[in-house]
Amino acid sequence: MLTQEFYELCSRSHLSFVRRLFTPRAHDGLEKISRFNSCSRAGVYSTSLELTNECTSTVWPGVVSGHGTPPLTGTIFTLEPGESASLFVPASWSGQLWARTLCSYDLTGRFNCLNGDCGTGSEECASVQAIPPVTVAMFNMSGNGGLDFYGVSAAHGYNLAILVVPQGDDEGNCMATACVDAPDGPSEIGRACTTTCFAFGDPENCCSGAYAPPGTCKPSYYSSYFGSRCPWAHRYDDDDGKEKNRTFACSLADYHITFCPRPSPATGHKVATGAGTRPSSARKAKRVIIIVLVVVVAVIAILLTFFEKLDGGLAVGIVSAIYTALGLLFAL
C-alpha cells in the first residue's frame, strides 16, 4: 500500500501535498518521508517540508513562493493540535512558511486570520506575504554549491514559536534553528510582538530611504532586545549584512518545521543554541565566587572544630551560611 501511495505521488506532477496524522513518539512519518525522498529527488519534487502543529489550537499554515518561483499547489490545509502534513517542493524552490491562527470566514465569505493573515480574503496566500507581526521560516533550495539555505526570521515580528530541523545529509552548517522564546516587548512598541518598523514607520527602523544601503541600517535598542530573546532569528531587514551565521546551509536534506515546539526537542541533530541555553559570563563568575566562599567557610569551620573553638551558636551560623550559599549557587 505504501509503495503504491508513493508511486502515485511521483507520477502525478500536480500533487505537492500529502496529509497525515503525526504521532511524535512513532516517527514513522519521518521514515515515510525518507523512503519517498529517493523517488522525489529523481522525479518532480526533490525536498519535503514537514509541518507539525504542537500548539494547543488549530493552525492554518501560510505558504508563499519567492520572486520568480512558481507558486506551489495544494497549500490550502489546516493542522489540528498534534497533526502534521508534508509539502513536496521542487529542487529550485524558494519561499516562506508561517502559522496563521484564529482564522474564520466572515459574513461576506472572506477568510481572515487574527494572526499571520495575508489579506487575500481566501485560505490561499499565493504570492502575498503575511501581514506583520509574524514569525517566518525561510527557504532557498539549491543555492550556491547546490546547498539549501534556510533560517527563521522575526524581522517582521513574532506571532508564535517556530523550530526548523533538517532531516538528512550533514554537509555545510546543517543545524536546527528556531525562535521559541516569546518576547514581552518594551511598552513603547505598543504591541508586544510587533516590529519597530511596524510600530514607528520611520526609515531608520524600516531600513528604507537613507538607511536602505547595506551597512547603514543598524540594530536598534528594540531589535537588540528581541535578538536577546531569539538570538538565532533574523531581527531586521538588513540583518544578514553582518549576521550571516543566522542563515544555515544543508545538502540533500528534508526539513521538519514545528509550530509551538515543546521545550528542548530531541532532534538528533546539531542545534543552534542561543544565549539562553548557556550560562552567561557574569553568571559563571557569580558561581565561581559563591563556590570559593563555600569552600572558605567550610575550611574555617573545620579549623575551628580542630582547635575546639567552635561553639554551638557559631556552628549553626556557619551551617546556615553554607546552605544559603548553596541555594544561591543552584538558583543561578
From TrEMBL:
- Which UniProt keywords are present, listed alphabetically? Membrane, Transmembrane, Transmembrane helix
Task: Output the InterPro entries linked to this UniProt entry.
Answer: Osmotin/thaumatin-like_sf, Thaumatin
Top-level taxon in the UniProt lineage = Eukaryota
Q: Where are the transmembrane segments?
A: 288-307, 313-331
Per its UniProt record, what PANTHER family does this chain match? Answer: OS03G0233200 PROTEIN
Q: Protein name, please?
A: Thaumatin-like protein
> Which Gene3D superfamilies does its entry note?
Thaumatin
